Amino acid sequence: MTKDMTAGVGFQSGAMQPGTLVRHVTRQAWGLGKVVLTDGASVWIYFKGRPGATPESRVVELSQGTDKLLPVERTQDTELEHLPPYANGKFSRTATSMTFEKARNLFQRAYSLGFGDPKYLGRDGERP
Q1: Mean pLDDT, to the nearest integer, of 60-84?
Q2: What sign has the CA pseudo-torsion 14, 17, 23, 29?
Q3: Is the pLDDT of residue 7 over 50?
């Protein structure tokens, strides 16, 4: 996580809430971002285009009043819509004891022809 505490006048006080979609003014390559946490003084934003090996490395902390963010109209974005809750510097993930090997075996049992199996693709040739 990167920390940038530059003060500014970008959002009205309290306007940045979890779920708010934003773009960084000077880091356009980071693309669309989503506020994942606020604490009154700071705001944490997940930027889907920010380089990083893990989802946590794509989170940036900024001051709540920063002028480095622009609000974005609501848009559909599957990745941002399905981010798990973020707290204590981490996204929460459901624990599982299923190994990759077991998951693959279950998939192959259900869809013997793999990703091309008509049961997997559905009637219109698209995944459900």
Answers
A1: 89
A2: positive
A3: no
Q: Could you say which of 3.40.50.300, 1.10.630.10, 2.30.30.140, 3.40.630.10 is the CATH number of the domain covering 2-86?
A: 2.30.30.140
Across the chain, mean pLDDT equals 84
d(CA 80, CA 73): 14
Residue carrying the six token digits 């996204």: 91
Residues paired with residue 44 on neighbouring β-strands, in sequence order: 37, 61
Question: Is the sign of the CA dihedral 38, 41, 44, 45 positive or negative?
Answer: positive
Say if residues 14 and 20 touch (Cβ distance below 8 Å). Answer: no
Chain centre to alpha carbon of residue 56: 9
Domain ranges of the chain: 2-86, 94-128
Tokens 């944490």, located at residue? 44
d(CA 9, CA 73): 19
Tokens representing 64? Answer: 């709540």
Does pTM top 0.70 for this prediction? no
8 close to 65: Cβ distance less than 8 angstroms: yes
127 residue type, one letter = R
The DSSP letter of residue 58 is: G
